[in-house]
Predict the structure.
Amino acid sequence: MIKLEELTDTNSIQTFEITAIIDSALCVGAGGSSGTLADKPIVRNSGDNLLIPASQIKGRLRHECEKIARGLGWSICESPNAGRMVIRRNDSPPGFQRKEYEIPGYKDTYHCLISQIFGDPILPSRVIFDDLICTEEPENLTEVLRPGVTINRRRKIAEEKKLYFLETSPVNVKLEFTGDIHIQPSLTPETPDFAKALIYCGLRHINALGGSKSAGLGWLTWELPEIQVDETVWEFLLKGENSEAN
């Protein structure tokens, strides 16, 4: 349940600015756009600035955090399958029957570490992402069209009459895309708050975003602020396989 009085307590929300520096060229498509020759135009905001949608950052980051948590031995729910993201206590697997997955106010369900950060069908997300907006003025960026052709994976040849054009950002100009991550207070104050540590580790695992990554598009480096993580957080994350089930 979302409590409005808690959302208005801005002093308890941690906000961090992150910047993605595109090393090659970015291709984040916007379906239904017009005014360009591209079959897949790049997404822009109302001010015509290039952007990386917050939904793409959140989804990709969740996937990376899931891999890290599983690697540390924690049982993680199966996203994005809604039916497998909510773990009912009356028929939960043994790996989920632990006190770290118990959330006050949710007596009938367990929630894994990743759901406690990014949410699930019944638990609200603790983190809010802004779109990453390109800091370069739109009039300084020329339209770049990249041709491609559909490949028949079975026959391993190009399909006939399947030429298309992608719109990308300019190539190799180190464009910067900047936005904020807002982390709300933990739902389990008695447990070390691991959200910031997992999010920053997850971001470091993301090396490319957008489409056509295998063709060299979307490769990036991150510019992140310095953060302080208490030693108890790392000790908590490292005991994934050692905690006893309730």
Summary: The CA atoms of residues 49 and 137 lie 7 Å apart. Residues 54-71 form the longest helix (18 residues).
